[in-house]
Amino acid sequence: MHILETRDLSYSYNSSIKALNNINFIAGRKQKIGIIGSNGAGKSTLFRHFNGILKPESGEVLIRGEHISKSNIKEIRKLVGIVFQNSDDQVFSPTVEEDVAFGPTNLGLDDDTVSHRVDEALRILSIEHLRERPPHQLSGGEKKRVAIAGILAMEPQVLILDEPTAGLDPKGVNDLLEFLNILPEKYGMTVIFSTHHVDLVAEIADYIYVMDDGRIVAEGTVEEIFLKQELLTEIGLDVPVIPKLINSLQKKGIDIDMAFSYKECEKVLTEAFERIK
Questions:
Q1: Which of 88, 78, 77, 188 is nearest to 146 (CA)?
Q2: Structural domain for 192, as ranges
Q3: 17-27 and 4-14: which strand pairing?
Q4: 194 and 67, same structural domain?
């Protein structure tokens, strides 16, 4: 049984705008799934179906094999947490501590459990020092961490992040990538994130869906997707810098294996230099 699945999911904002068109999507336990596509491809609309914010026009959304309904929506939102692109939409309480406590409190948990979850979420995100700060005094990166902490405090099985690096400086991006990479193995979560910055995807994802104009136009591993250079260019996405560089070196006759992430690139370049010595 898949932890999250859609079957022929379609949705229109009005009769003339088809935001999603027959989306078939599967997420398994402990996966890191990237959804890439240009602005307006339908990524955010799809995410809003994953925990019942939007209802399908047609098709199905299944969480652990169950349809989302009024009777299970509270449980679904415990299982599937969403961090929106704009942290200001999610961070609104007088203090960081109160904001992180908001979700678990609304789940009806007792005070001791809420307190423990808040402490743990603040620790995981390394923002204990922000506990008493008002959110409006935080930087964009700090607000993003608080928004994520608020979802983690609900202990979801699926963490969904819509354009998670939006508004972050380079250090904030690197910190977030490191954090997302440990979630599946350390905390057992499935991570699903969207972005139109393709260079970030290879650093996190183990599987990718490509969206364009409300449709899934390709899916596969990092290698399978990023070798489809013509498709990515056609739908307005750039090819990631690292495979583009490796491909250029290969065309110049340099014997080097393909790489997609920074660590892979470092490895194959080191091996290539060792052979030259």
A1: 88
A2: 4-223
A3: antiparallel
A4: yes
Residues 51 and 155 in one domain: yes
Co-location of 85 and 126 in the same domain:
yes
Residue 234 lies in a domain: no
Please tell me the predicted confidence (pLDDT) of residue 227: 87
Cα–Cα dist 51/68, whole Å: 8
CATH number of the domain that residue 123 is part of: 3.40.50.300
Tell me how far CA of residue 173 lies from CA of 43, 140, 142, 167, 200, in angstroms.
Answer: 20, 11, 12, 9, 9
Q: In the chain, how many domains are there? A: 2
Query: How confident is the model over 84-97, as pLDDT tens digits?
Result: 888 877 888 899 99
- Note if the pTM is more than 0.70: yes
Q: Are residues 249 and 162 both part of a single domain?
A: no
Residues lower than pLDDT 50 in the chain = none
The answer to the question of residue 203 being in a domain is yes
Q: How confident is the model over 227-263, as pLDDT tens digits?
A: 888 899 999 998 888 988 898 899 998 889 999 888 8
